[in-house]
Amino acid sequence: MDMGLNGRWALVCAASKGLGRGCAEALVAEGVNVVITARGAEALEATAAELRLLNPSVEVRTVAGDIATPEGRAAALAACPQIDILINNAGGPPPGDFRNWTRDDWNAALEANMLTPIDLIKATVDAMAARGFGRVINITSGAVKAPIDVLGLSNGARSGLTGFVAGIARQPQLAGRNVTINNLLPGAFATDRLKKTMAAGAAKTGQTLEATMDKRRAAIPAQRFGNPAEFGAICAMLCSTHASFLTGQNIILDGGGYPGVF
Question: Do residues 86 and 121 touch, judged by C-beta distance below 8 A?
Answer without folding.
Answer: yes
